[in-house]
Amino acid sequence: MKKQLIISAFMALFLSACETEPIPGPAAEPGSTDEYAGHPQNQIYRKELQAFRRKWNIPGTIMLLKRGDDPVWIGADGKSNLEYQTDLRINDSFRTGSITKVFVATVIMQMKEKGQLRLEDNLAAVLPEVVGHIPDAHKITIRHLLAHTSGIADPTNDDLQYQLDLLNNPSRRVEKSTDELLRRYVYGRALVFQPGDQFGYSNTNFWLLGKLIEKIRGKRLPAVLEEVILTPFGLTHTYLDRRDDRNVVRGYNDFYANGNLMDVTAIDRADSDGQANGGLISTAEDLLKFSEAFFGGKIIGRASVQEMMTIQPVRKGTNEYGLGLESYSSPELGMGWGHNGTLLGVDTNWFHFPDAKATYIIFNNNGGGADKSFVEKLLK
């Protein structure tokens, strides 16, 4: 998710009125943070990781690097929980934010392969219950939803009421279903632009895709992900369903830009857990398993992967997005594909560069953002 500054501006104003939650301690003892000490690049990678984390005032960072046929390296530096001063571990679970979208898009593409849907199917046909609530539903296709070219509004980023509801009562927000979110924040709003005209990132697109998967498959989205991706490919520490998991890394944000970090985990949990747009919880190791299976054509066929990696045309402006996949052009590694994920207290990145046979994954528990270009030089 790409949170706008509006939520930071109102956090200070409403912080005293916001519901708070006790900060739990970890449920397990910390493990080793340097299991890759024997890696030939360990000292270099670890030094760069530590410098990066400290430069950007991040409580804790996990970094995974994979280059060609070299062995994978994973490192962790800093803290997963500032209240308890818990050391971050390389296998700690993070909220991944919008990296979730790639998993959901992969399921949609598998359903396309099975003939359960077509990308040109329109919203009115596949989800008729939205007709009369979302304008021009007959013009919006599944492809538009995957590519963020639908024109449907994105309340998570541009709706003040959504932000205030989230801040003032996160426990109530986390209980809301996708249908409730659509009714309260999306239905009845005008399109931002006509379908296909331009790129406009909207988390609503993936709320609708999650609904579509559940309707066609007859199962809850977490169960579908388990069946299609998580169980077959050994992602044993990845899940979408809402859990009271005390081992998930806490999230922080420096709202006043004064170096003082606030724990915003309750808000991140309310804004994402269980949702098709950004609720996946995973580990760096699990995400690498997904990356290799996905780009290796093992989850969906290579033709479907290539289609997801095709930047979608728009009639106005430019676009750098495929079908549920972000593109990233690196001067060091060439074109990369993956996704970023941003919550108030989380900043995650996963990108694979096919030509360079390189992959990096970075999990930060400070949602303020950070320049990660140093990683590309390490992987060159």
The value of Rg in angstroms is 20 Å
**What is the element string, with H for helices and E for strands?**
HHEEEEHHHHHHHHHEEHEHHEEEEH
- CATH homologous superfamily title: DD-peptidase/beta-lactamase superfamily
Work out the count of structural domains.
1
CATH class assignment: Alpha Beta
The largest pleated sheet is described as: 7 strands, antiparallel
Proper CATH architecture: 3-Layer(aba) Sandwich
How large is the share of residues in beta strands? 15-25%
Total strands: the figure is 11
What fold name stands as the CATH topology?
A: Beta-lactamase
Low-confidence stretches: 1-6, 28-32
- Average pLDDT confidence is 91
Q: Kindly report the spatial arrangement of strands forming the biggest sheet.
A: 3-2-1-11-10-9-8
Question: In terms of structural class, how would the helical and strand content be classed?
Answer: alpha+beta
Morphology: globular
Number of contiguous helices:
15
End-to-end C-alpha gap = 29 Å
The portion of residues assigned to helices is 25-40%
